[in-house]
Specification:
It is built from three helices and ten strands, in the order βββαββαβαββββ. It has 181 residues and is α/β, with parallel strands linked by helices. The chain has a single domain, classed as Cytidine Deaminase, domain 2 (3-Layer(aba) Sandwich), CATH 3.40.140. The chain is globular and about 40 Å long.
Length: 181
Amino acid sequence: MWWPRSTPKPRGERLGFLPGLRGEGAKARVVASGTYAVILILAQDLRTRIEAEARTAYPNECCGLLEGMRDGGTIRALAMHPSANLAPDPATGFELDPVLHLRLLRCLRGTGREVVGCYHSHPNGRPLPSARDRAGGGEEGFVWVIAAFGADSAATIGAFHGAAFEALALVADPRPGGAVA
């Protein structure tokens, strides 16, 4: 699968607090330059839609692309673009529609927005990257959101980025679509 190239991984990390944020997600890694490593701000309505799409696709995996903006070490997901799962066995993996991906890349040119990552589900699984996820992805800076749940359990969301699939600080935004002020 092809992924857009992005910025290199920051080095020289330490812990710090994110200005203007309280509670869970307020602490994140800070690089030596004083900028934050990476956090993902995901609007509550997008999270709810990802969870609903995962339940609808059950027992198969759902998948799609995340549109957003980057500002230093902060990635704000602003929209989701569901994709057909083109994997040979959609119950055990996912493959995004490359036509959707290319159309979205073209559509976003010059808008200040970009494809910041993808989302998919792990039916009856955990919100962690699988061996298949690690083998099929891992572009630096690319975000992976994973929704996991069982047939009768609530969904849990995990967020990761880069070739090492490092866990991201996931911050909920109550504004619809993570509206940019």
